[in-house]
Structures are given as C-alpha cells and as structure tokens.
Amino acid sequence: MELTGTFFYWDWEMQLMEWLQSHLPHEGFGFWLLSNLSAFGEELLLVAIMGFLYWGLNKKFGKYIGINVLMVNVWNPMIKNIVLRLRPYFVEKYHVELLRKIDSNADTMDVAAQGFSFPSGHSSNAVTVYGSLAAHEKKNKLLWTLAIVLPLLVGFSRMFVGAHYPTDVLSGWVLGVIVVLLVPWLRKIIKNRWLFYGVLLLTAVPGIFYCKTDDYFTSFGMLLGFILAEPFEERFVKFENTSNIFRCILRTIGGGLLYFGLNTLLKLPFPKELLDAGTLVSHLIRTLRYAAVIFAVIGVYPMVFKLTGKLWKKKEQAA
Q: Is this prediction's pTM over 0.85?
C-alpha cells in the first residue's frame, strides 16, 4: 500500500544535514563509525540490554526497562502517523541522501516500511533505555553519563545519515524523557497490575484505527505479548536470576537467537506479498507474530534455565 505524507521543515535543518553529509566521510571506517552510532538506539542492542537484565542479572529491573521501551515504541509511531512527516531525503529542493535505511529490505521510497520521520524513534529509544537505566540506579554516575552521551550520539547519527531532521531528534528526546518519567509514575500510583496494563492499552489501542506503518503494529504486538508473558512466567515458570556473568551472556545469546529465529520462522507460512501489503490482514499477522515471539522469549524460554541450572550445579559439584 502506497502512503503519502507532508513536508514541513526549516531551511536551517536541511542546510545542516547537507553540511554534515558534505563534510563527513561516506565510506571507510569513518562512515561505518558515524552511521553505526545509530545502533545504540536499535532493536538488536535494546534486546541485548533488556535480555541481559531480565534473563540474567535482575528480572524486575529488566521488566521495568522493558515496559518503558515497549510504550515509547507504541507511542512514537502513533505520533508519526498523525504528523505524517516525510523523511528529509524526500525533499527535492535539497540534496540530502539516505545513507542508512530504516528497513534494509525495503525500497527507500516505501513509506510504510521506512516509516514517517517525526519524532525520531532511535532518539526516543536511546533516551528511554539509557535514561531508564540511570533513573533506576540513581547513584550510578556512569549510567547518568551514558544516558546523556549516547542519545546525543544517536541523534547526531540520525541527522548525518539523512533519516531525521534535527527537530525529529529533539522531539524524540522529549518523548523519551516523558516515558521515563510517566510510565514508572503510573506503575507507582496504579497498584493493580491489570488496571495498570489496561491504562497503557487504552493509550495504545487507538493506533489500530489510523496507523498505516509497520512499526506501530510491531510494537503493539510486542506489548500484548509482554502483558501476557509476565503473569505466565510468575505463575508457571518462576525462573531465578544469576550473578554469573558467563551464564547471563549465554542466556542473552539464547534469547536473542530465539527472538530473531521465531520472528523469521513465523513469516514462512505467509506469502511475502501478503506480509508487505500494508492491509488490515497483514497488520494483524504482524501484530500476532510479534505477540507470539515476545510471549515465547519472556514467558516460555526461561523454562530452559531450570534445566541448565541443574546442569551447572552438577558440573560445579563434580569440580
């Protein structure tokens, strides 16, 4: 489904991005480094951070980070699909290139896949993740430093690669701060878990009726999966965290492989044309797919830890 959007920008924004792209490298290690600063706000690293905490060191801390990230990733595309701001490289008056695709498998002009521009999802993700880490561990100066520096680097990278206007980045940072403050505050005043989740869902459900891009339905599905997985794990699994860093890493790698593997596997029964159609059916499939993936990795996958825990104990006793 072909989508159209709107243009609005200040000339200084386009001029700044043109200057960055004309003065910074487009190849070699320098380009790789500058463009990959965006990775600090991308899916792979976020899954690794949340997984390392949830599956490894601290389950409660991991869930705290997880619900914040899920909400910012639902609210961000809901705003995008209201504002409908096309990305900078669509502006013909200037010569900003897209140097790093949002969806590497889709055409750069496919708005449904590449998404709208305002606000920057990478920027809001970076503030939410690293800001949540710092807010939870209030006395850790290193985490506070990362919470400031990493979002700045991500925002710079998003402008350099031509994916976002400076005002997209600024608005992404603001949204991230709002989530870091608002979601934990709601959790604090709403003691009943299901009422808390009900309030969050009420804010998220309206997007079903007007959002046209894939990112909303991905995040909405993940939110549903998380909401179902948390009580399932608490009642039927009850896995224990570990302070052994090696085991934390192994659990995180296993969870990451399961996350990406299941996501790929659940696509196989459906034709690619259907998955990419941008219709109600394709969006429903995407939502259910991601709900199933998150339920599996959050609720079911930790069952493995009981078995591996016994094996570790036997190995330690034998040693």
A: yes
